[in-house]
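It would be a great kindness if you could assist me with a short task in structural biology. A protein sequence and the structure tokens that stand for its backbone fold form the material at issue. I should value your view on which stretches of the chain appear to form regular backbone elements. The record follows directly beneath this note.
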Amino acid sequence: MGSYRNKANIIRHKINYQITAPIIRLVDENAKQIGILSLTEARNQAQVAGLDLVEIAPNAKPPVVKLISFSKFKYQEAKKLKAEKRGIKGGEMKEIQMTPFIGQNDYDTRIKWAKKFLSTGNKIKLSVKFQGRQIQYKEFGFQLVDRFKNSLQEIASIEGEPKILGKTLFATFTPLKRKAQKLDEKTQPPSQNQKISQ
């Protein structure tokens, strides 16, 4: 995925002789405006400075071109992408599935996953699935939701009331706005949008 993004950046930004606009707005590496120049003048400046021309806003009139070392530009773009990725981390809905008569070990594992997810700002959708005639014992599903809520009471709160749709009881948990929880589990959580079932 990273390599694809890097390729996309190279394609998106024309450099040096790939730039064809006759008049451009030249800025320095800090985005400070140098001026509106002909492409020939800009190329001369780049040659004298030993730098590259990188088109950063091709649709502007005139297009905006940055005077910068292309290797430094790529580094800045990678850094920006990493920061953006950090910024959007969390805030997703992660689903954890259980049955009303789940074993203790499986329950403990799901609590670990829930704590991991909540610690990075994600919400949890708990799905308690009734199999076969288990739907006749809905109270066990609600008891499991209460147990789950109590296990996470220091880091999460439940949104509204649990609801049954078909043979599944749903409850949503939101992370509490407190300092980040330090978790020592060695295992890593599943990838984004992956469900944990059983």
Q: What stands out?
A: The first strand starts at residue 23 and ends at 27. Residues 26 and 89 are 34 Å apart (CA to CA).
